Automatic annotation (TrEMBL):
The gene is tyrS. This is Tyrosine--tRNA ligase. Homodimer. PANTHER family: TYROSINE--TRNA LIGASE, TYROSYL-TRNA SYNTHETASE. GO terms for cellular component: cytosol.
Length: 431
């Protein structure tokens, strides 16, 4: 894993002077079969590739020169854990890495202190240095579950952002007008609504764009909500005499509800460090229609294999079988083949009303205790109100018997409590 803290060769600690002469592009090269294959891999599942003809030429020149392209993904460590939605763009990075190109996993330790305003309707508070460093360490570890860590260049944008100082920051800010910044939908909506926009938020896309200059990026990846920021990087590279990067945006993966973007705050996520049986069960809970989108964005199966799966379902095969294959692939990737096999066994057992083998054991006191309070103390429900709703919906069982009385007082003893389809606990309750 490359982690050198070297200052980029083409960027000094202060802003380089703008070049009057823009770089001239070399003559067009023919696209070999290998280049066309690489282009097809790149385009799989993407929302946009800008500009495709330019990227095709970058691939052709890379093949001719033997010099890999520099492909950048920047992530601000705003939370300690990643979910499958985050891995959509990481999967694309891995595909490009397997094609032989240099992928750069950029930790936005500097930009995190500004706070990305993308998709926000309020100012987001910046993180502390301690929070950023703690989250970044987790990101390193979790991203390597997808990327080939030994071939990944890991950088932090504080390397070139901190040395800018006030003078460099002002010079950088002079390269973009307020009018162009206000072209962003989120800024425009907040301005019209009278919602505050802090001046420092204008700096975020500029600093992200400057990252592309510092890293001499050939291609930058991001979600569809990052398009404006990625375009700023492309324009700044032109200002500094570099050939502009191409831009690849990936769709935002819907969560388990099939409606909203996967998000921990919406509780519709699949965490990549969750236990294998939980991951498996969550994937099995998605709709048969949404399954194909998950295949396209998360699976490493070939497009030909996915087409065969669709044909089999159209001819009468149970889509559940295809979903099992996806669930096993994902669990294997983030855990192991054995974990995937165990998860399937566990899922089948639960679907028949059985109790899994790996039920966590808890010791609680206070009997007799209300069932809602018991579920909360056992961390099977987030609150007593949620626990009562689960009882009302018939989603709570004690020793396989459905609990229908939300005022039930649970007596001392040892029993297995189940909430919903996936939450179990073996509880020993004492007075």
């Amino acid at each position: 894993m490359t982690t050198e803290k070297t200052t980029p060769q083409t960027v000094s600690p202060t802003i380089p002077k703008t070049l009057d002469n823009k770089p001239s592009l070399p003559p067009s090269l023919p696209l070999s079969d290998a280049v066309q294959h690489a282009l097809a891999v790149t385009k799989r599942g993407v929302d946009e590739l800008l500009i495709e003809s330019e990227f095709a030429q970058k691939l052709a020149r890379s093949e001719q020169s033997g010099k890999p392209l520099r492909i950048k993904l920047g992530l601000d460590p705003t939370a300690p854990d990643l979910h499958l939605g985050h891995t959509v763009v990481l999967n694309k990075m891995r595909q490009l890495q397997d094609l032989g190109h240099t992928v750069i996993f950029l930790i936005g330790d500097f930009t995190s202190m500004i706070g990305d305003p993308s998709g926000r309707n309020v100012t987001r508070p910046p993180l502390t240095r301690e929070q950023i460093e703690a989250n970044a360490m987790t990101y390193f570890k979790q991203a390597s579950l997808v990327l080939d860590a030994a071939k990944t260049e890991i950088r932090c944008n504080s390397e070139w952002s901190d040395p800018l100082g006030a003078r460099g920051m002002i010079q950088l800010a002079s390269k973009y007008t307020v009018a162009r910044m206000m072209e962003r939908d989120d800024f425009t909506k907040r301005f019209k609504a009278g919602t505050p926009i802090s001046v420092h938020e204008f700096l975020y896309p500029l600093m992200q764009g400057y990252d592309s200059v510092a890293l001499q990026s050939d291609l930058e990846l991001g979600g569809t909500d990052q398009k404006f920021n990625l375009l700023v990087g492309r324009e700044l590279q032109k200002d500094y005499g570099q050939e502009p990067q191409c831009i690849l945006t990936m769709p935002l993966l819907e969560g388990l509800d099939g409606v909203d973007k996967m998000s921990k705050s919406k509780n519709n996520y699949i965490g990549i460090t969750e236990p294998g049986n939980i991951m498996f069960a969550k994937i099995m809970s998605i709709s048969d229609t949404m399954m194909w989108r998950y295949y396209e964005l998360l699976s490493f199966c070939s497009l030909e294999q996915i087409a065969q799966y669709k044909k089999a379902v159209a001819e009468g095969q149970n889509p559940r079988d295809i979903k099992v294959a996806l669930a096993q692939e994902i669990v294997t990737r983030f855990h192991s083949k054995q974990a995937a096999d165990d998860a399937l066994t566990d899922f089948v057992n639960r679907s028949k009303g059985g109790i899994p083998d790996d039920v966590p054991e808890l010791n609680l006191s206070g009997a007799p205790i209300g069932v809602a309070q018991l579920l909360k103390q056992a961390n099977l429900c987030a609150s007593t109100s949620e626990a009562m709703r689960m009882v009302e919906q018939g989603g709570v069982r004690i020793d396989s018997a459905v609990v229908s009385d939300k005022n039930l007082q649970v007596q001392a003893g040892t029993f297995v409590v189940q909430v919903g389809k996936r939450k179990f606990a073996k509880i020993t309750l004492t007075a």
